[in-house]
């Protein structure tokens, strides 16, 4: 444990792996933890022995893989809640929220807290996709979600010394706070459901077309709750867990990635110029950024997003997996019950795998077919296998239109004429690796050539 003190866990674990190898055993209190940090090791964990390492703890994100409950909800998320058709149906919301972001910045463009603006955008976007609008409980719910994410990050005494007197005595306060927070989120979720149903949520067709309003994620869940057919009962507790996952995975990870993308672009004027030129040439003269116009037509921006995810994966240590039975990884024995961490951040910065690994070079993906599918174990921003993030397509769509809108409508620079290389790129650690400080930039509105007087 002392080897991890005073450093971000994914940084400290990479340094230890460089010394002790790509499959490394750590003893964290009473917890036996294996850290893997080479492509061959996560391939065994998330492909060869995927079923053995598919377990976690509890709730939806941490539910045991073998449980029918988890399998059904996972299938529901992948095929219905966040499938390609559903992602497409949310296009108008993405466009409206991106346009709202642009209007807000244009109203006071001098010094912009880009971090805060993007966080609000992603939260409102997710809120609208999930429940149709921002709802009266929005601020209270988001505040509690932020607290829950903080509690989920890192280790607490019960993680390190499960069931021990030390954990029960010294960790009682944090456990009580976690239970109270869980109960409060559950009550707010129930209030949101009641509010949602009071507005006549049932009056939708299910495809977002030809109906009185677009079907949102809660509509879908309530429809499945009413009609059945899942093989499990969608209780309010289950709904609360699914909604928590949608917000935690959706707003936190996409917001963090978008902020890092803008940080790297400002720090790399050459890359900024090329990405901005691509967007402006494509949308020449338009007053907004229609998603239909940019989809599949901004290859360099896609490279920028990939390169951002390589250097700044939203979850640098993929949420820990639990070994379900004794097995081997690269010839090493891994006993049943061992916690396994995949250091995605270390994979993305491995100098043996990537040329100029610490530099921001989107061009590296120009002739590279590497994508987000989880088949290239050098590049795992959404994980791989049974536990792969089901919302990756949804998240990338949100990132692309946001960054494209910011690049099209504004020119960006650091305040006070500071050099781009002076931008602080320090990380803080939570459930995601956020910027340690807010990204503050000066924005100059860009007037498309066709609109100039």
Structure description:
- With 453 residues, the protein is α+β, with helices and mostly antiparallel strands.
- The protein has a single domain (2-451), classed as Cytochrome P450 (Cytochrome p450, Orthogonal Bundle).
- It has helices at 9-20, 40-48, 68-81, 84-89, 91-107, 114-131, 138-152, 157-160, 165-170, 172-198, 217-227, 236-267, 269-282, 291-294, 299-311, 344-348, 392-409, and strands spanning 23-28, 31-36, 111-113, 321-322, 327-329, 332-334, 339-342, 410-413, 427-429, 433-435, 440-445.
- Helix 5 packs antiparallel against helix 6 and helix 7 packs antiparallel against helix 10.
- Mean pLDDT is 83; it is low at 58-62 and 201-212.
- Keywords: Heme, Iron, Membrane, Metal-binding, Oxidoreductase, Transmembrane, Transmembrane helix.
- Belongs to the cytochrome P450 family.
- Pfam families: p450.
- One of its GO terms (cellular component) is membrane.
- One of its GO terms (molecular function) is oxidoreductase activity, acting on paired donors, with incorporation or reduction of molecular oxygen.
């Amino acid at each position: 444990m002392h080897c991890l003190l005073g450093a971000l866990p994914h940084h400290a674990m990479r340094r230890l792996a460089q010394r002790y190898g790509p499959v490394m055993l750590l003893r964290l209190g009473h917890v036996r933890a294996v850290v893997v940090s080479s492509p061959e090791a996560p391939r065994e964990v998330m492909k060869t022995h995927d079923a053995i390492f598919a377990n976690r703890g509890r709730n939806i994100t941490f539910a045991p893989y073998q449980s029918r409950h988890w399998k059904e909800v996972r299938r529901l998320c992948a095929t219905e809640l966040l499938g390609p058709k559903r992602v497409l149906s949310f296009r108008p919301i993405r466009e409206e929220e991106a346009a709202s972001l642009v209007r807000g910045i244009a109203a006071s463009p001098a010094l912009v807290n880009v971090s805060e603006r993007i966080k609000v955008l992603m939260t409102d976007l997710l809120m609208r996709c999930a429940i149709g609008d921002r709802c009266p409980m929005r601020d209270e719910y988001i505040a509690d979600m932020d607290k829950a994410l903080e509690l989920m990050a890192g280790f607490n005494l019960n993680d390190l010394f499960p069931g021990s007197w030390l954990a029960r005595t010294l960790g009682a306060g944090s456990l009580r706070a976690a239970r109270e927070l869980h109960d409060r989120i559950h009550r707010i979720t129930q209030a949101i459901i009641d509010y949602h149903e009071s507005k006549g949520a049932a009056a939708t067709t299910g495809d977002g077309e030809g109906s009185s309003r677009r079907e949102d994620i809660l509509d879908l869940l309530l429809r499945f709750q009413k009609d059945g057919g899942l093989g499990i009962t969608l209780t309010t507790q289950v709904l609360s867990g699914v909604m928590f996952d949608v917000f935690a995975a959706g707003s936190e990870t996409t917001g963090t990635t978008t902020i890092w993308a803008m940080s790297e672009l400002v720090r790399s004027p050459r890359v900024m110029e090329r990405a901005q030129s691509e967007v402006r040439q494509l949308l020449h003269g338009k007053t907004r950024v229609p998603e239909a116009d940019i989809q599949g037509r901004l290859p360099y921006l896609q490279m920028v997003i990939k390169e951002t995810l390589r250097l700044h994966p939203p979850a640098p240590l993929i949420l820990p997996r639990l070994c379900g039975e004794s097995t081997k990884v690269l010839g090493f024995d891994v006993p049943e019950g061992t916690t396994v961490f995949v250091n995605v951040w270390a994979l993305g910065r491995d100098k043996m795998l990537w040329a100029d690994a610490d530099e921001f070079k989107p061009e590296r993906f120009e002739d590279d077919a590497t994508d987000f599918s989880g088949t290239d174990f050098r590049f795992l921003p959404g994980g791989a296998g049974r536990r792969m993030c089901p919302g990756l397509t949804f998240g990338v769509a949100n990132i692309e239109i946001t960054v494209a809108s910011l690049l099209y409508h504004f020119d960006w620079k650091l305040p006070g004429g500071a050099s781009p290389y002076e931008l602080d790129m320090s990380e803080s650690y939570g459930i995601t690796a956020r910027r340690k400080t807010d990204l503050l930039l000066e924005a100059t509105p860009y007037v498309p050539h066709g609109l100039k007087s």
